[in-house]
Amino acid sequence: MVTIPMQLPPMPTTVPFPIVAFPILRAVLTALLVQAVVPGQEATPQAQKPAAEEPHFLIRRYPQDRDLPIAAVGDRPITLGELVDHLDEKHHPGFREALTTQPGVQRMLQSDLIAPWVRQYADLVALRHGTKDRTIDEVALREAQSAQLKAGFEGWLDKFYPDLRIPQTDEPSQKQAQKKINSLLADYQLRSGLAAELQGWLDYLEPDQYTRGQMFEFFNANARAFGGQVKFAHILVQHRDAGTGILLNEQGQARATSRIADIQARLLPDGSNFEEVARLCSEDTRTATEGGVVGFARRFDDRLPAVLCRAAWNLTDGQVGDLVESQYGWHLIKRLDFQQQIFILFTDDAIPSIRLVMRRSRQEEWLFKAREHGKVKLLL
């Protein structure tokens, strides 16, 4: 069973995704490979042997499954080998080799890292495909991606290792602190580099260069998103493992498909029995007892997947939407109510917030259109 988190810590104000290392630190990544990925793990001649009994979700191993597809963008399959090569070349030199020599690194492909990696890499391919007719300034793109990585890593350091941000007074302490920072950067980039790379793409495609007139037009067209919240309920059917987010095996996916069909058959056309069906059928253990009620959500609410906020806000009160997919599984959503909790006027004081929401909205459009036009399909 899974519970949709509603008390998550604040995420970055843009769509949460960071990439290439800071140029000055790129050279240290190769040397820090093994220590950063699995500190203290000694190399072994073979990758970890598979367990006697396969788990209930899909397992991919490297290099055995290098040529197996993990996603598709249109007719173009994306293989595990392609993802590994990209991580090795862009984010963590030596990662490919470490997968074949260290069980701890190999286990990353069965951890909660692999599903986000697959999703983010598929989005990157879809964005590149969707902008093939557009002239891309590769230098400016890399700068945007590096800026995202730098900002994300520094924010992470401030939160978890604030002492390392304090200037040291003597040279040995400075070297020791820098060595620790370099090691943390190598690990951070492996885990979060694809996210930064994706966000950098969005920052490049949608720069913060709006005129006052453009912001005023956006504000008037989206006034309800400023200070308003939508209350909605959902029915969740898991087709991914609750712990890792990896797709269930063939039997699990078949069960999920059958369950969705059964739920859709139970729902009345007007959605009047949605809450009852949610109590009986939803696999979100926290909300099922409340008839699937998630609560109120802002248009861009960092506590929830963007696809859920987007779907709920696009409905009218009482309407049940089409099936949507998130990292938790398949959702049927019913919008319950809208409340305007505060009223915002277009003033100089409000412009920073309006600018932020405008950019986030347009970046979301870039991403969702790329997914739709690319017919992105996740296979892991």
What overall form do the CA principal axes indicate? globular
Supply the number of structural domains.
Answer: 2
Q: How far apart lie the N and C ends?
A: 19 Å
- Specify the helix fraction band: 40-55%
Secondary structure elements and pairings:
Elements: H1 26-31, H2 33-37, E1 69-73, E2 76-79, H3 80-91, H4 95-101, H5 103-106, H6 114-130, H7 138-160, H8 171-205, H9 212-221, E3 228-237, H10 250-266, H11 274-281, H12 285-288, E4 293-297, H13 306-313, E5 324-326, E6 329-340, H14 351-374, E7 376-378
Antiparallel strand pairs: 1-2, 1-7, 3-4, 3-6, 5-6
Helix pairs in contact: 6-8, 6-14, 7-8, 9-14
Give a brief outline of the structure.
This protein has helices at 26-31, 33-37, 80-91, 95-101, 103-106, 114-130, 138-160, 171-205, 212-221, 250-266, 274-281, 285-288, 306-313, 351-374; strands spanning 69-73, 76-79, 228-237, 293-297, 324-326, 329-340, 376-378. The protein is α+β, with helices and mostly antiparallel strands. Residues 1-52 have low confidence and may be disordered.
Architecture overview:
The protein has 380 residues and is an alpha+beta fold. The chain folds into 2 domains: 16-40 and 67-212 and 347-380, no CATH class; 227-343, Chitinase A, domain 3 (Roll). It is 47% helix and 11% strand. It contains 14 helices and 7 strands. The strands form 2 sheets. A 4-stranded antiparallel β-sheet has the order 4-3-6-5. Helix 7 (138-160) crosses helix 8.
